[in-house]
Fold these 4 entries.
Entry 1:
Amino acid sequence: MGVLRPPNNVTEFALLGLTQNPHVQKILFLVFLFIFLFTVLANLLIVITISLSPMLAAPMYFLLTYLALLDASFTSVTTPKLIVDLLHQRRIISWRGCLTQVFLEHFLAASEVIILTVMAYDRYVAICKPLHYMTIMRQGLCQLLGVVAWIGGLLHATVQILFTMDLTFCGPNVIDHFTCDFFSLLELACSDTYRLGMVVAANSGGMCLLIFFLLLISYTGILSALKSRGSEGRRRALSTCGAHFTAVVLFFVPCVFTYTRPVATYPVDKWVTVFSAILTPMLNPIIYTVRNVEVKNAMRRLMKRRAV
């Protein structure tokens, strides 16, 4: 496995974590443990509810299943290690573990970018071209777009890993973070990484910024189309679109903040990562259930069926 061979004499990295205070660590351990369990269970509940509810066979809910699976997976990349590390003062991650973490983070994040974009297109077609909705957003197309999301995420993550494999390290090996992130590795590298950092900013930050603005334009078109709807139709459309737009903002704002800047790390980066990798996957199932009557009713029917 040559691609996983440590560069130079570095075989592991030391993570400083969120805090060095033992009492705060214990509190954070309980908080993040609860958040992690809730996030995984809530997203899996959405997947199970949609899969077992014939009333939720619309393309929107098929795509929501993808989003829930991605959120459950994304938070599982970083949160379990953070939880375990909060119980120890010595926090170590191997070179292979660091490489795997970077790959999975970018793979799942890029896949989620594509799924969120497809979900926005789904809402655009449903509101602006309602008569052609089922023809355009047919099941086969949704499945194909789901595969495209996985392939797109794989390609993006592979590019990031190829960049990482070119880095050389000669010490120190301390990362001021609770997870491996690309910018921290760039700062620890021995060679000049300015150009590489610019490429990463264009690859990740440019993609986030461009897609975010395209989504804002699409929602401007949706809001314009809603002016001709009746009050009830406008209310229902705004409810579903509002949930999705909230999810888009929660995902893209941290992404834009992190990657559309020169290569550097700041103390606030840790909490931005907490928000994007831990809190956002927890908030998404809440957003999509609290604001969606169909999903809530399907969950109630599922619970009643299991109770009988």
Entry 2:
Amino acid sequence: MSDQQPPTPEQPAPPPGPTAPPPAPYQPAEPNQSAPQQNPYGGWTTAPAYASGPAVPESVPYVEAHFGPVASFGDRVLALLVDAGLSFLPFLLMLAGIPFIVAGVPDRNGVDEYGMTTYGDANGALIAVGIAVMVLFWLVGVGFQLWNRVFRMGRRGQSIGKSVVGLKLVDARTGAPIGAGNCFLRELVSGVVNGVVYLSYLWMLWDDNRQTVADKAVHSTVIKVPKS
């Protein structure tokens, strides 16, 4: 018996015709180098990738990549001084009511036979005018403060002081104005915390995101914009 295996049939030759080209080697996609799209509130809507990864929302790199450069402490103090000066003016005008009150106070006539000091009649009309003038300008001051620091800044992102210096208050996550409600809360927190050695405002000196305590309460920040 022979150990030889039967011959295997030959494979048929491929039919004549064009051969398919070999697949192209894999090429990684090039990163998109196009300029980021603009944000309707001023700034950018897409942030570049940093060496350590994408910027974290509310951080300085994130805000500056999306919306604009973050304001410095000096810029914010200057805007606050402008607003404070404008707000102080109505309260200063309250002093105009003092002369009326003084004029209405009764004069001292002298001492009677019993050693008692006697006074003339008070002028109630003058006293009432003085009080009315002081109340009026106090209401004007409070109203101006609410309009300038709550409604105007909440809707537009700018008080008069911020407009003069070229700053804008925005949501640190979206770049939009924070609204009157959040602006009122921000002013309230600032007023309460600033009672402790103006701590709310000074907080941004050592905060990594350059936010005050009031900013952190409503997730806001202040950026630089063209002066208006």
Entry 3:
Amino acid sequence: MLFSEILGQEHIKKHLTHSAENGRIPHAQLFIGPEGSGTLPMAIAYAQYILCNNSDGENNNGNEACNLKFKNFSHPDLHFAFPVTTSNRVKSKPVSNFYLEEWRELLENQPYGNLFDWYKLLGVDNKQGQIGVEEAHEIVKSLSLKSYEGGYKVMLIWMAEKMNIACANKLLKLIEEPPNKTIFILIAEDEQQIINTIKSRCQILHFPPLAEDAIKQGLIKNYNLDATVATKIASQSNGNYNKACDLVYQDSEDLQFEEWFIFWVRSAFKAKGNKAAIHDLISWSENIAKTGRETQKQFLLFCLDFFRQALLLNYKAPDLVYIEPKVEKFKLEKFAPFVHGNNILEISEELQDAIYHIERNGNSKIILTDLSIKLTRLLHKKSN
């Protein structure tokens, strides 16, 4: 993967290439950045720069055969670990090696993809993947072997916050004192979910959200979009190139989420003193409970973001508002006054509690029904 193919983040590219050229390569690094900021493609490009002895800040002038192996992500000294779960094909003790074909497909088509995209590709979005202790055994085994080409070995762990405690404890010693010329690159979106004993053993690199102009240029280059259309999509994507790509194809889950959210909001406003609307809320909860747990979590995060955007508009900060509702006859300007300082904290807490309980395999129908009734009450709360 060429550094020139990665959008923006120029200061991080320079930092990584200069450190590699000067032989200052930390044995364990943690790349932390929001979805769509390019942490995964950057990690792969960095691994290629090291393994293929590239120079001058680009991956096209080192070992040609080595660079060629990276084109289909099959270099024998580049190892991957990522969240997995059981599926129709893998019935027990799933590990990343069982899903390498699907993983390479994701890297080829959606290098900026998120966990939701990955589970959809596997067809397991009703389950929650993890990086478990079986994976730790595989990592220890693969890194105990000599490198195929006699140089460095790189272990890239994507969504490292999905490591369970048993896996993290198993890898602690290895991350602290890896074999000679072995490099760990951990990638995460949520720093708070990574245990401190892992964090303390890594050099941390924070990735900011992508600049609008970087996303715009990427859309023009990769999708041949008109500059005006690319500018609008870049603005709506909020620094997330993965979301921008979804908006290009008009297959973003956000479109479905918006319909669910607005149906819920309209039912909530009708529910005061109206028994029929309560039935609508229960029906709404049942429908969403039928989807996969990852879909439910993504939807609740979308709701959280929608409420924040409404609050910004209500408090006269329209320049920070990037959501443009597409559902007919729904105006964010009319909805915004109902989201204010007197209810936003409680709304946020209720949504985060619901995400927490869904993650822990609570009954989705009960959780969502309880949430919809609570949020109905909060939406009717006066601003003073």
Entry 4:
Amino acid sequence: MTVIVRDFRAHDAKDAQAVARARRAAIPFEVTTPASILFGVRTANPAKKYRLLIAEIDGEIVGTAHVGMAYDSVEPGQSYATPQIHPDHRGHGAGSLLLRTAEEHLAAEGAANVYAWVMDTPESRAFAEKRGYRPTRPAHFQRLDLANGTLPPLPELPAGVELRTAADFEADPRPVFQADAEATSDEPSDISMDFDDYDDWIRHTWNNPLLDRELTTVVLVDGEVAAFTAAQSDGGTRYMSGMTGTLRAHRGRGFAKLAKTDSLRRARAAGYTDAFTSNDADNGPMLAINKWFGYEICATEVRHVRTLG
């Protein structure tokens, strides 16, 4: 049995398909497509020093690792690397080789700390601890059965409140960017972000093939963006809430629930059967909202960090 690690080949369609299959098997609570894999590689900011590493066993792709610098962090030297191995091929050294290759690359680029997400299982946490990683914060994957679950009715809208979709902002997405920037800056995180690059957001968020603009709901109050829920989809049956946020001036008025209710109801009408989301364990308000909708925690991952050098 021969294990090798190499870089993803963007020119090879088979690579994108095999990577998507491996990632879906390793993390079945996310939405991944070959198109999103290719998009991430081809549009990576040069400052990210990004590499998509591939692990093969006897020529079969069995795992991947997204590796790069957190170039938008306010603190220099922050980086990330998370090996993900197909469950049928764990225990053969692919994860170790991916992580070692990633750390060598990041160290050469000046990384001081490497952050990695680790599934909250005894085996995964032992793997991380053995390699010098310490836990920082957990997050919960959650699933909602759209096909058989019961969604709340859409309430009557208060005066001055409108529901739009992201598609309504295609001529000028800047109001959506500004809302995303404010909401993201208030989320719990190990790495503080400097979220002010509109062009970068357009390239990597707005143009992401997973972003479903028709299912992304934007709440307007007196014509201004007050809240939103960003929907991702695979074009088939899987829907994921990429981000739900309310601007500070409008919090406490139920707009996050309103946005999610509208988006989820339209996703079900469009034929989506499984809805997923993920929240930091300290994000009590969003966890409570998702529980209200009927989401159930299906897995937990824990952020880990290792200091290099």
